[in-house]
Amino acid sequence: MSDKPTDRSGGSDRSDGSKGRTGSRPRRLRPSGGYRELRSFQVTTVIYDATVSFCDRFVDKRSRTHDQMVQAARSGRQNIAEGSRAAATSSQTELRLVNVARASLDELLLDFEDFLRQRGKRQWNKDDPEAREVRAVGARRDRTDQSDHTDPSDHRKQYARWLEHSDPAVVANAVICLIHQANYLLDQQIAALERQFVEGGGYTEQLAAARLEERRRQEGTRSDPSDRAKTAPACPLCGKLMVLRTARQGKQSGSQFWGCSGYPECKGTRELGSDGSVGSDRSKTGKP
User: Fold this and answer.
1) Strands (E), 102-254
2) Mind listing the pLDDT tens digit for each residue in 157-169?
3) Which end of the chain has fewer beta carbons closer than 10 Å to its terminal beta carbon, N or C?
């Protein structure tokens, strides 16, 4: 199963599909939620629960290490959920939070490795039979596509033989294997989010594009057929779509022209012909 950071229908935590007091909410520009179906969230939930149990069993509760490990495990899980929720309004915030989750798991990984090293315990190599058995559980889950909303305890049960072991070294090594799996999934998730941002833009860009499209639709419904030739051109300076504007001052006050939708950051303009056609670039001559 691919760990795509996209929403899926049927998720109880979808923020754009839930119902309010007056019925279904309007469809949002960008989906959010659905994090419970992400394999990364499922694995980090197992890691969080296993870390809490491990620390209660094998780490002094009064020590700073106990609290730090639990908080790092919690951060790895919670930031995936928060990032998914933030997707509706900010792709950059979503990316930042998923990266925070990744960094938290790296911190937790070092704590478990330190535990083994400081006690003279062996850390499993990735090719050791024990490590391969733990990884095989995750591989079986991926093949059967168990991305549902079952109780998280059902996921933990599959790793119980290691996570409930009386030897702390076995538990620590099993959690280390799970952290490596989660980090791999988060790397894939981050790469997908970056591609989506590059290809589709951020929330602000998508909102502006949607507004321009709606404005063109509204103008098309109340204009005569000749006005429909006024297709928005690209800005000669930055390439963004342009919008019709009306000069408010100067010699050409009251006349229409094409202005960049990125104004005031971009001041690109084009003339508007008498028949609605796109005229020449006026950017070098200043504002009309």
Assistant:
1) 242-246
2) 899 999 999 999 9
3) N
Is residue 74 within 8 Å of residue 184, measured between CB atoms? no
Tokens at residue 208, please?
A: 């502006």
- Residue matched to tokens 């990364």: 40
**Residue 253 pLDDT grade (very low, low, confident, very high; cuts 50, 70, 90):** confident
Q: 151 by DSSP, 3-state: which?
A: coil
Angstrom distance (rounded) from CA 13 to CA 276: 48
Least confident span in 7-21, 166-180, 196-210:
7-21
DSSP states of 68-79 as a string? HHHHHHHHHHHH
The residue type at 214 = E
| Cis ω for the linkage preceding 26 (within 30 of 0) | no
Asked if residues 191 and 184 have their Cβ atoms less than 8 Å apart, the reply is: no
| Closest to 13 measured CA to CA, from 101, 84, 87, 80 | 84
Q: What global pTM score does this model have?
A: 0.62
Size (the chain), residues: 288
Among residues 218, 257, 251, 219, the alpha carbon closest in space to that of 236 is found at: 257
Instruction: Count how many Cα atoms sit within 13 Å of the Cα of residue 233 in the half-sphere of its side chain.
Output: 19
- CA–CA separation, 281 vs 243, rounded Å? 14
